[in-house]
Amino acid sequence: MSETSSLVSQRELWQCSAREAAALLQEKFVALWRLESQLCRIIAHLDNGGARELGYTGVTGLVADIARSSGPGVTKLVTRALVTNPSHSVGGVEIPAAAPVAGEAVREGEISPEHVDGIVRVLEKIPATVSVEDREFAERSLVELARHAGIGEIGTLGKEILGRLDPDGTEPRDTPEPKRALNIHQRKDGSAKFDGYLDPISAAKTLALLDPLAQTQPDDPSDNPLLRGRAERYGDAFMEMVNLAASHPESPNRSGGRADLIVTIPLADLKRELGAACLDMVTDITASEARILACDCKVIPAILDGAGQPLEMGRARRLVTEAMRLMLAIRDRGCCFPGCSRRPRHCEAHHVLPWYAGGATDLGNLTLLCSRHHRLLHTSDWTLRMVNGQPEFTPPAFVDPWRRPRTNRPTAQPRAA
């Protein structure tokens, strides 16, 4: 304990002089910076597979739930954690931190987290062609200044450094010829890679649909722009657009209604969440993935012989009809997960008790979830039950030690379908 802290502990704060109170405040800020650096180490550790093990697609959603917070604060905290701490590759090889000098300085309490933000903003703008030595020199210079300077001075020095390292600035890109082209590269595992061009009019029409779907949801603490960056965000938005088109009555798919996927899996494996399934007769997926798809699907009974060859196919029966979906939209008004504001047209029907475990396909056993929260519910320790006809969610103990139930209470005005 410092001399100032010891002095204050022996008497009331109001008895301290302004000088003593200011010294104590500075001391507490240093302690706060050191404590946050410890949080960052834990966050970086959870980013190495821990968040996914708990059912989250990224560490930011996990941090937001545990901190019961959202917005820029969580985003900045996770950013600092990932740039100031090393990570590990799939094989366990350590990957050095992007800003190790800044990380060490904040752990020592010599610079603030806001200084780290300013330093990282400069480092991100350094071209990839710059040598490792020059990049390290830039970081050391910024950190040394941050030890005795403010945030604004970091930006000023950053501009000078960037001017010396990249005097010509970013080269302008050539404008592509106006045309429409789409190349799809199908991979052996069933995934696909896209590239192509759109003429200005087509691009404007496409972005008018994608942009609203790709925006963050301020009310959803698990949604943030850090780990779900621009490319992933627009990829998710594109998939939502595909789902909307596939569910249109005039969609040119096999069913003439909501798009169908053929999933082949033994019922026993589906119940136990073990084994593997086959998607559209080509792609292998896990039984867990099959369970997610099985919530809102068509069931086609099949009789197989001993070698697994189909002998007879029954008639398709959709579990959740369009009439049921409309009633769910009226009742739930969108995704029921706490804090989510996705509209009904962007949601999937979820069986609270799975149909393959005897759960009925009726309103009392169904609820709407957006695809992200639908997956989270299937892959994490979040649980769901119906209470008086309304969905009630219980978070994992690491989010809330008391596991207090949560609901997504409807707003005063109904959300449009």
Describe this protein's structure.
This protein is an alpha+beta fold and 417 residues long. It is built from 14 helices and 15 strands. The strands form seven sheets. The chain has a three-stranded antiparallel sheet with strand order 5-6-7. Strands 1-2 form a two-stranded antiparallel ribbon. α9 packs across α10 (230-246). The longest helix is centred in the first third of the chain and has 36 residues, at 18-53. The chain is globular and about 75 Å long. Residues 174-178, 253-259 and 411-417 have low confidence and may be disordered.
- The helicity comes to 40-55%
Parts with pLDDT < 50 across at least 5 consecutive residues: 174-178, 253-259, 411-417
Mean pLDDT comes to: 78
Number of strands: 15
State the end-to-end CA separation.
59 Å
**Could you say which structural class the secondary elements and strand pairing correspond to?**
alpha+beta
- Rg to the nearest angstrom? 27 Å
Strand order across the largest sheet: 5-6-7
How large is the count of helical segments?
A: 14
Strand content: 5-15%
Overall geometry: globular
Task: Characterize the biggest β-sheet.
Answer: 3 strands, antiparallel
Question: Helix and strand string, N-terminal first?
Answer: HHHHEEHHHHEEHHEHEEHEEEEHEEHEE
